[in-house]
Specification:
The complex is a heterodimer of chains A (143) and B (269). Chain A is 44% helix and 16% strand. With 143 residues, chain A is α/β, with parallel strands linked by helices. Classes of the chains: A alpha/beta (143), B alpha/beta (269).
Chain lengths: 143, 269
Amino acid sequence: MAEKEFEPKILGFFCNWCTYAGADLAGVSRLQYPPNIRVIRIMCSGTVSPHHVLRAFQKGADGVLIGGCHIGDCHYLRGNYMTIKRMRFLQDLLKFIGLEEGRLHLEWISAAEGPKLAETVRNYTEKVKNLGPSPLKRAALAA
Amino acid sequence: MDKLRDKVRNLLAQGKVAGYIGYIMKDGHPLPHFFTKDRLEEVDRAIVAPGDARYPLDKLLQQAAAAAPDAVFAIQVRGCDERGLNELYKWGQLDPEKVVLVGIACPQDQADYCECPGPWTTVIDSGEKCQPVLRSPRVDRIDSLAEADALQEWTTHFQRCVKCYGCRDICPMCFCKECALEHQDLMSTGAVPPDTIFQLVRAVHMAGRCIDCGLCEENCPADIPLRVLYKKGNLLVKALFDYDTGSPEAGPSPWKFLGADSPLATKPM
């Protein structure tokens, strides 16, 4: 039997005010994107703690995509300033322990950018597919 | 040593401090000790602990300060301990008005072993300044590895973890009442070795807070090179936010500060 193509599991954290609304727009515009992403709606991307991202990798996510408002557009004024600080740090830390760059991705997507959302999810799914299963998942299984 | 003992004796005798947290030579062992005015003769046995007999004195000071909030205490500090105090002041755990430093400059072999960039204190009561180690060869070695090799090495280390929480319990900077490492929703409980992310969660917490005393690594029964991980965390905080951990001039912690403008941009996919 031919081996099935690897279908990555991607966890999305989308902020309620921008990216999730952007996903709504992509939906009503009937834009297609792969079903590999599981979206969790959160009130602000600033509420995503590095704990949640690490927990996602531990539980077998192959990639984590965080969507927030553009800088300056945050519904809570400064929430996404915290997001970028935390996630840039976490991206570099994960790189240091040997996780491929790109397993954790942050993108600013506004409520008006439905096409951008669909394109981001398409490109990101493709990228994670090429990276293959997360090595952290393999390490967790081996333990 | 006499200079240090004289200073401590004067501080205690004149009542400037309620106690001195330092080390004593007891039955041939260097041990942490709380010196008071009532037992002034003990100061004759006060010592500078050798490098392989260090204890988290900052942590003992926090306990003493919590028990007697109005008292002033003197404490023996190395460069790392002083950086730790500076961070603890920032996080509101200690009052700088209520701490008197008795400073130690580390010898060269200690600085080389710790790869310490600042092995002396602002007040030096014992020892001479030595050459700081500005770049950590241990971090550089991991940085030079290929991704798969680095991951292999780290997961091998992490799988030895026996989840004793020794790294957290000895850490002078770990003062939280509730710990993410014990949170059922954030970490699998009741299994050894712990989740692969166990050490990473701690590394996230130590970024911009670890003062690189190295007690975690010395305390670890599984010899996990935790210090390399936390050193890298601090280097990243320096690179991203230009924050010198433990420096009194560095301003508030970058994790606290809600900046009006962010110089950071998202990484391209």
